Amino acid sequence: MSYSKRIEQVKNHLNYPKGLLAGQVAIITGSGQGIGAETARLFANEGAKVVVNDLDGKKAEDVAQQINESGGEAIGVKCDMMSDADINNLVKKAAEFGNGKIHIIVNNAGFTWDAVIHKTTDKMWDTMIAVHCTAPFKLIRGCAPYFRVRDGEPRVIINISSTSGIHGNAGQANYALAKAGVTGLTKAVAKEWGPQFGVRANTVAFGYILTRLTAAKELGGAVQLADGSKIAIGIPKGQGAKKNEEGNKPIPDIPLGRPGTATEAASSILAVASPLFSYVNGQTIMVTGGRNM
């Protein structure tokens, strides 16, 4: 059975005819492409008003336009998540779009900057901490006035992590530490804002998902920072990168035998954001196809 049919059954059963996220305003960082863009589309399909954010403003606008043309509601906001001014503007735009309310934050923006420990520079280290820990913290802090409220409406924070932050990974000491830090931030938010305000905060930790970060490095993928730095992304073919196409051989250490798709990853974020997870708080949800269990 397809994802859309399964979710339709769930909606009918639980009486959410207007969508699982109807009327909620969601900020999704790094949603101009990949998992973030798929999450934005799924959220919009479920009735959310989506704030599409990306360092590349055109990509953010393009995703928002696609959502609006499909009958959803979205705005695109260019935002460098390492800029305090940009984060403040993102929160302001989201609140205006939501008529003074923000319900969901998905801290998805991020990338890898790999090197073995003795070749990791201070800039590589500091950038990973800034992108994956400091930026989510500042966005959550900036949204505090919209989350620390008692209006009976749901408030949900989802921080995206990785199995590198759970198990560690050779060549990713900076990324592994940053992604481990995300889980600590999530638990602190759950304990602070859960009791009085009913805010749910959870982490979704992805395993091998087909994105530009797991594509072959030889394909030339890169991230360009606001200061002009260009960072090559991907995994060298000799270190296990797979082609993003059908017909790959089964992957022995993944019980499902294959990597996940961006849509499958986004679907897990939707599930955690939805009322189906209303009593799940402070947890790390592993989305790995069974890898590392």
From TrEMBL:
One of its GO terms (molecular function) is 3-oxoacyl-[acyl-carrier-protein] reductase (NADPH) activity. Its EC number is 1.1.1.100. Residues 237-256 are annotated as: Disordered. It holds the Pfam family adh_short. It comes from the Eukaryota. Coiled coil: none annotated. Belongs to the short-chain dehydrogenases/reductases (SDR) family. This is 3-oxoacyl-[acyl-carrier-protein] reductase.
